[in-house]
Amino acid sequence: MAEPTVISTPKPRLLPWHAEVAEHLRAAWSTRHLPHALMLQGADGLGKGHLAAWLTAAVLCEQSSDALTYCGKCTSCTLIAAGSHPDLLWVMPEEDKQQISVDQIRATSERLTKTSFRRGYKIAVVDPAHQMTPSAANGLLKTLEEPTPESLLILVTSRSSALLPTVRSRCQKITVRRPTTAESLRWLEQETGQAADPALLEFAGGAPLRAMQFAGGRFAELDTEMQRGVAQLLSGQSDVTQVASEWAKEALVERLTWLDLWLMSAAREAISGTAERVTFPARSAHLPSLSRTLNITGLYSMIDRARLLKAQLARTALQRELAVESWLVALLQTLGAAPASER
Q1: pLDDT (tens digit, 0 to 9) for every residue of the chain, 343 residues total?
Q2: What whole-number distance in Å separates Cα of residue 103 and Cα of residue 83?
Q3: In this structure, are residues 92 and 153 in contact, taking their beta carbons and an 8 Å threshold?
Q4: What is the rounded distance in angstroms from the CA atom of residue 60 to the CA atom of residue 220?
Q5: Is residue 314 packed enough to be buried (19+ CB in 10 Å), middle (13-18) or exposed (0-12)?
Q6: Residues ≥6 apart with Cβ < 8 Å to 301
Q7: Going along 77-171, which residue ranges are E strands?
């Protein structure tokens, strides 16, 4: 039986928009009503991993009180910082795998049934929970239905709908809210020491931690590169196969996100009757307007296909270049622009 993947946890950290959730958890802890199974759900980039790490540190801390805090100095806190606490498991897909296997979950469930090494709580964090195989999710049901005393199971997910209904129904759901635009921009400015770009935040889906990954010029570089690449495709200066090969090698998910938002902008502009086709929300128009009337249904179909492709990249092994090439050919057909090889 495979051992669960155990890694050092993300840094325990409460972010400003976690305050409401933290107060709820503190109230449950102080009244001894902390559930045996929690589902931390919310969009990617909201720091759910940091929140889970804070909760595990506070529950396992030897100095923890009703306030649900951690000291950072006791033996448990030291072990957590080193990624070697014997009563804390962080289960994630194994290296080069897309999903969490049934063997990992069986090993985790078995560990939760045993006596705590440090005579306290036993905690398992499954992250991301929606990447469990169906067999793994089913294997978790017994643990959810028959929990052992002082055990805590935390499922972290950005796609709770992908989990089995029987799993969802046996967890207390905790939703991590998306901060307002003003809150996010203020936090980004504090973290980076620079004015935050609203377009960067929109690209990140309003998720501040995801926006942080593309701060410092990374988003501007991607934006410029994608504008150039799309313009060359539309004008027939680039070959679809070559572009697909280049895009599949690096930052494919981010490129698909950019294309998703660009097509959404193009669809809104077409519906409103504006001639310009903006390349990205909050930016001025860079690409020339298209001469023919756009197929709005076709645009939304391409958006759906881009989102499906992103989901497939997270779940399964995929022939990336072939998938991207197929998507680009369909895009050019939708826009009424033939691939360069056909001109």
Answers
A1: 344 344 446 899 999 999 999 999 999 999 999 999 999 999 999 999 999 999 999 999 998 878 899 999 999 999 999 999 999 999 999 887 889 999 999 999 999 999 999 988 999 999 999 999 999 999 999 999 999 999 999 999 999 999 999 999 999 999 999 999 999 999 999 999 988 888 888 889 899 999 998 888 888 888 888 888 888 888 888 899 999 999 998 889 999 999 998 888 778 777 776 545 555 555 554 454 554 567 889 889 999 999 999 888 866 667 889 999 999 999 998 887 655 555 4
A2: 22
A3: no
A4: 42
A5: middle
A6: 334
A7: 88-91, 122-126, 151-157
Q: Using CB atoms within 10 A of its CB, is residue 57 exposed (0-12), middle (13-18) or buried (19+)?
A: buried
* Domains within the chain, CATH numbers bracketed: 16-178 (3.40.50.300), 217-342 (1.20.272)
Distance CA 296, CA 159 (A): 28
Please answer whether residues 52 and 156 qualify as being in contact, where contact means their C-beta atoms are separated by less than 8 angstroms.
Answer: yes
Residue 247, amino acid: W
Q: pTM for the full model?
A: 0.81
Alpha helices in 61-97 (DSSP H): 75-81
**What does the alpha-carbon distance between residue 39 and residue 41 come to, in Å, rounded to a whole number?**
6
* Distance of alpha carbon 219 from alpha carbon 99, whole angstroms: 29
Residue type, 1: M
Residues in the chain: 343
Q: Backbone phi, then psi, for 335, in 5-degree steps? A: -85, -5
The CA-based dihedral angle spanning residues 208, 226, 251, 52, taken in that order and rounded to the nearest 10 degrees = 10
